[in-house]
Design a protein that fits this description.
By secondary structure, the protein is α+β, with helices and mostly antiparallel strands. It is about 35% helix and about 15% strand. InterPro entries: SET_dom, SET_dom_sf, SET_domain_protein.
């Protein structure tokens, strides 16, 4: 399960490990070879729900589930047959997707040097839900397909989107493609725009899915983002939450890279996977200021990593904990503050300073509400502590 506030909003980080995909020099991608390969797909169930096997030649190949059942498909879900049969029965599909109140607090327009981006139409307050929507394409990260269905010809993905409604396909195809001509355009669009999604609320090491969204996937990256991406399982929606006040006309940004990685690590990942060089305020600081920023983020990363171990407070001092909290503020990493506040709470509890422990727990609870809203999985864990924390 991909919880953890430091990495929320990270776009498809593990999709290719630490390396970008290598283009596979596959059979030339011609319209006739593509339709021939799409012909290899077969309908497993043609009515509600519609499930299609990606490749008739491979019984174990991935399957495409089109949702909602019985209507033009807004979304395709890609996974094993057993999994999509289960997913098809989720009660959530009988409910209409949540609708955001009108007018939306943002617009999508050209962002100089970045293609398009999302911009605030008015002051958006910290903790406000900016946008929520369901993905048009959701897939297990690891898919099973034949070797002749590859990144260069995009046959697999083209077959998957062929069952979508015209408007959903159009919305997907309108997204940015940062990959060059060595790759199929549908593969490029999906890879450029994937965000991580969860398909279960239970801990599950195989819960490793990606989703592509018509609007959320438009947001650009910043190493000090103004919004946090959160996937809420209950309505099956991706959500953007404002992590600080966003002034009218300011850009709404999320993070595609780990918030606590150094500038060099962030730049490498953004260039390898997303094909751009970040010129955000943090990345363009003078060299010495970048060093200080890297040192602060490194300390936050180290302390956050400790929070999951039994030696969490070994060698730790109150001064170091409070300093790290200051670093989180200085770097403007609001989403990272949750994990740090939780760490501070457990540190002070270990020191038998219960009053201070509870104080940090209250702060963490408030931050969770700001960056993930009422559906926050962390908030649910606080339920039993409400009498202490209220
Ligand atoms: Zn940057």
């Amino acid at each position: 399960m991909k919880r953890g506030f430091l990495k929320n909003g990270t776009r498809s980080q593990k999709q290719f490990g630490d390396k970008p995909p290598s283009p596979v020099r596959a059979p030339q991608s011609t319209p006739s070879s593509q339709s021939a390969a799409i012909m290899n797909t077969t309908c497993v169930y043609s009515t509600s729900p519609c499930i299609v096997r990606a490749d008739i030649r491979l019984p174990e190949s991935s399957h495409f589930l089109y949702l909602p059942a019985g209507r033009p498909a807004d979304m395709v879900f890609v996974d094993t047959l057993a999994s999509v049969k289960k997913i098809a029965k989720w009660p959530v599909w009988s409910q209409p997707p949540p609708v955001m109140p009108s007018p939306r607090p943002f617009r999508v327009e050209l962002a100089p040097g970045k293609g398009v981006g999302m911009f605030a139409n008015r002051l958006i307050k910290a903790g406000e839900l900016i946008m929520m929507e369901r993905p048009v394409y959701a897939s297990r990260r690891r898919r099973y397909c034949a070797p002749d269905q590859n990144e260069a010809n995009g046959i697999f993905h083209r077959a998957a989107i062929s069952g979508l409604s015209g408007s959903s396909r159009q919305a997907l195809m309108a997204l940015k493609n940062s990959y060059g001509s060595d790759y199929d355009v549908v593969f490029g669009i999906l890879t450029t725009n994937f965000l991580p999604i969860d398909i279960t609320e239970e801990p599950d090491p195989d819960n490793d899915f990606l989703g592509c969204f018509p609007t959320l996937s438009r947001a650009n990256h910043d190493c000090c983002p103004s919004a946090n991406y959160f996937f809420s399982f209950a309505p099956y929606c991706g959500q953007f939450w404002a992590v600080r006040d966003i002034p009218k006309d300011a850009e709404i940004t999320i993070s595609y890279a780990s918030l606590v990685a150094s500038r060099a690590e962030r730049q490498k990942r953004l260039l390898d996977i997303h094909k751009f060089t970040c010129t955000c305020n943090t990345c363009t600081l003078p060299a010495q200021a970048v060093q200080r920023s890297d040192a602060r983020r490194e300390e936050i990363a180290e302390i956050s990593a400790r929070s999951a171990t039994s030696a969490a407070s070994t060698g730790m001092s109150k001064k170091r904990v409070l300093n790290a909290m200051k670093y989180v503020e200085e770097e403007g990493l609001v989403a990272a503050s949750v994990q740090m506040q939780m760490y501070a709470a457990s540190f002070f509890m270990h020191q038998l300073d219960f009053a201070e422990g509870v104080r940090w727990m209250k702060k963490a609870k408030k931050s969770m509400l700001t960056v993930e809203g009422e559906d926050s999985y962390g908030l649910k864990a606080f339920k039993g502590l409400d009498p202490v924390l209220s």
